[in-house]
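debug: dumping io for the single-chain case to check the tokenizer round-trip. Nothing else runs in this session.
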Amino acid sequence: MRQYLPRSLLIVSVAILSVGCSGSTATATNTSTNTSTTPTATTATATPSNPAATATVAPVAGGDTCKFLSASDAAALLANPGPVKVLVADSPITKLTTCTWGKITTAGVLLVAQELKAAAAASEIKAAMMQSVVEPIPGLGDGGGFETKSADAVTVVFIKGSTLISLTVAATGVNADAVVAAAKKIAGGI
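debug: decoded output
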């Protein structure tokens, strides 16, 4: 089984990062389909660097707990998911939280939450994210749907406010309705 990467979050991340880089252009390439998306770069006023603006990546302190999806909700998506591994990357423009149960390449649950801190046009971010949606899901946050939907992998992506979520479940006989229900529960908690 191939590894599933939330393509829409990659595209939006590159778009957000290009906003913070003066005069630059960023290109995101989806390796599974060899298509390229080039977000339009905008200029920003350069600010002096300071240590507080340095991005940090660290595991969650005090044991791993995913603030977006509970262990019991993960168990409803995947039999015996095991403990969650949480990694948080914090930068001046975004906070990226990754929660993983099991092994996403064989059988696992992967939740990626990107909480945007920088001011950005929500309509442009939503439009970039929706490019990867193959089937919209009504009533999911401020917009979203299936990015992947097959017998062995389901990915649901959505945006709510300034938070982008990608929820992937990989296993034989994935229940797409259960993934949608979990995504709607996450959206309700944001």
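debug: round-trip ok. The chain is about 25% helix and 30% strand.
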